[in-house]
Amino acid sequence: MSTIKVNAIQHTTANASNMTLFANGNVAMTTANTTLTVGNTTISNSGISVAGAAINPLATGMRNKFINGDMRVDQRYSGSANTINTGASQYILDRWAFNNGSGTGVYTVRQMDSANTSASNYESGSAPPGFINSFKMTVTTANTTTSSSSYAGFWQPVEGLTITDLDWGKSTAKPVTLSFWVKSNITGQFSWAIFNYNSTRVYPASVTINSANTWEYKSFTIPGDTTGTWLTNNSVGLYFQLWPVLGSSYLTSSAGWNASALYGITGQTNWAATVGNTFYITGVQLEAGAVATPFEWRHYGHELALCQRYLPAFRYDGIGATAYVNMCSMYSTGTTGLIHLFLPVTTRVPPTGITTSGASTFSISDGDSGAALTALTFSAATDKNMSLNFSVGSARTAFRPHHMYSATSASYIFGTGCEL
After folding, report:
1. Range of 401's domain?
2. H or E segment at 304?
3. 278 is a domain residue
4. Does 292 lie in the same domain as 173?
5. What is the predicted pLDDT for the residue at 43?
6. Smallest Cα–Cα separation from 72: which of 17, 140, 15, 121?
C-alpha cells in the first residue's frame, strides 16, 4: 500500500487550491459556488439536504411561521360548517380565514376530522397520512364565469414579531420554503401568494393539482425580498393566501417579486365553476431556508396557546352543565355586576369587545341560589385580563361575591380585536 503526501489539491486551470489538507487532520474545501454535493448529500448556505431526510440549521426550534398549520384548533366553531357569501371575509379555524371577494360564488368552509368517526365533521380521507384535520372548502353556489376582479381564497396573516429573523427588506434577506398538502376533486392550476402588510411587495406563484381526489405534497422556495417594507412588530408581517378562485386582473405571467398587487399566475383554473367542487389543505408550513423539512408537530397545548394570543376563548369545559367560569361581584343595585377574567395567555393587543353564546347561556350563584344572566357586555381589558358587565332579572344581595358558570354546554365567551 502506497501513501501520497500532499498538503493541497488544485485543478490544472484553477488559480487557488480546491482542497487543503492540514497536519492536524482537518480538510478545507473551496467551491466556485455556494453548493457542495457529495453522493446524496447537498450542503449549501440554506442548509444540509440528505436523500430521504432534511437538516436545516436556519430552521431549528420553532420552524413553522404559521400557527395551526395542521388545522387542529377550531375554538370558534368546533368543526361546524360556515357559509361564506359574496363580499364576506371571516376567520374559521384558528388563525385561518376565508375571503370571498366579488363574483357570484358562495362557499361552505369547515374543519374536517379524518379519524374520529363519531365527530360531526368526520370524513374518511379528509387528511393525508400522518394528519387528522384539514381545512375544507366546498362550492355551494357556482361562479361559472370568473370576472377579472373575482377572488376567493384561504389565508393567514403572520405577525411581524415572527418574521424578524428573515431580514426581509434588507440585502441580507433569507429565502423561505413553503410546503403543504392539498387535495381537490378537480385537477388544475391554482394561485398562491406571499405579500407584505400593504401589498406593495407580492410574490405570486401557482400550485398544480395533478390527480383528482388525491392528497399531494407540494413545496416551493421563495427568494428573500431585499426591498420593500416588512413590519417586524405586532402588526402584520406577511400574508399567505391560496386562491382557488382568482380573476385575470390579479394575474401575471411568472413567479417573482412585484410591486403591482399581482397575486397569481396566468392559467388559473376556475375551481368555483361547479357546485360541489371541493378543496382541502393541511400541513401548511413556512420556514427559513431553501429546504422543505417535515411538518413541525407542536404539542396541542402549545399550539392552542399560540392561537389564544389572537383569540382568547372561554368555553364550556365539559365537566358538567354548571361548568365554572370565574368569580364575580354584585354592584349596589343588586341586579348588575362585574366579572373579571384572566386571559389564557398574553394577547397580541388588548381585546376590544366580546362575542358570546348569549347572556342566557350563563348564570351566577352565591352558593345558595342562582340566577340566569339577562345581559353580558364588554367593559375593559388589558392584554392579560378582561372585565365584563352583567345583569340579572331579579335583585341579588348587593356587593355579595358570586361565581359565574356555564348554563349550557354551548356557552362561550371570545375576546375580539386581537386578530391581525
Report:
1. 311-416
2. helix 300-308
3. yes
4. yes
5. 66
6. 121
Written as nine digits, the cell of 391 is 345583569
* Residue in 200, 254, 262 with CA at minimum distance from that of residue 231: 200
Specify which residues 315 forms β-bridges with: 412
Polymer length of the chain: 420
**What angle is formed at CA 62 by the lines to CA 60 and CA 65, rounded to 5 degrees?**
115
Global pTM? Answer: 0.86
CB 214 within 8 A of CB 278: no
Same domain? 396 vs 299: no
Q: What is the pLDDT of residues 133-175, one digit of tens each?
A: 999 999 999 999 889 999 999 999 999 999 999 999 999 999 9
Instruction: Encode 137-147: b = buried (16+ Cβ within 10 Å), e = exposed.
Output: bbbbebbeebe
Q: Does residue 266 contact residue 137 with C-beta atoms inside 8 Å?
A: no
**Domain end among 284, 307, 330:** 307
**CA distances, 97 to each of 23, 276, 311, 404 (Å):** 60, 20, 13, 32
State the Cα torsion 328-352-109-95 to the nearest 10°: -100
In this prediction, residues 285-309 reach a mean pLDDT of 97
- Phi, psi of 305, deg, nearest 5: -65, -40
Q: Which residue from 234, 306, 243 is spatially nearest to 272, judged by alpha carbons? A: 243
Angle at 71 between CA 61 and CA 410, to 5 degrees: 125
- 328 and 288 in a common domain: no
Rounded CA-CA distance 29/14 in Å is 14
3-state secondary structure of 305: helix
Pairing mode of beta strands 264-265, 251-252: parallel
Residue with cell 428573515: 166
Q: How far is CA 312 from CA 196, 308, 381, 409, in A?
A: 26, 5, 12, 18
Grid cell at residue 213: 381526489
- Amino acid, single-letter form, for residue 331: Y
